Amino acid sequence: MNAGLRAPRDRRRERPAPGAHELGWACSTPGGITAKAPRELALPLAFLGPGRYTARIWKDAADSESEPNHLTTETLNLSLADTLNLRLTPDGGFVAQLAPKLN
Fold it and tell me: Which of 8, 33, 55, 69 is the most buried (most CB within 10 A)?
């Protein structure tokens, strides 16, 4: 091995992870999955920047415990002060697209 080569330094542990707004991202796409048991999820949106956001959410439908391929979509107006509350069914999940709201 060449003595002049070093592995890159892992800087992820040196400071907290930046929020989407700090990275200059136009939108953020959180998601989650569960296995076996249903779960209630409360996702604080404090990682968003200031202002209002349009959230488009794809999630388990009301009947997805018996019909696991059924999804539903929902559109919400949110801010960094909000919390996204979701019910994940067994072997289910969600994905959301959060984009800055245009006036």
Answer: 55
Task: Count the neighbouring beta carbons within 10 Å of the beta carbon of residue 72.
Answer: 13
Cβ atoms of residues 97 and 84 within 8 Å = no
CATH architecture of 29-100: Sandwich (2.60)
The owner of tokens 């404090």 is 46
Q: What are 24's two structure tokens?
A: 């200059």
Gap between the Cα atoms of 45 and 92, Å rounded: 21
Task: For residues 65 and 89, give the distance between their C-alpha atoms in angstroms, rounded to a whole number.
Answer: 6
CB burial string 2-39: b at 16+ within 10 A, e below: eeeeeeeeeeeeeeeeeebbeeeeeebebeeebeeeeb
Quick: pLDDT tens for 46-103. Answer: 988 888 999 999 999 989 888 888 999 999 999 999 999 999 998 899 999 998 887 6
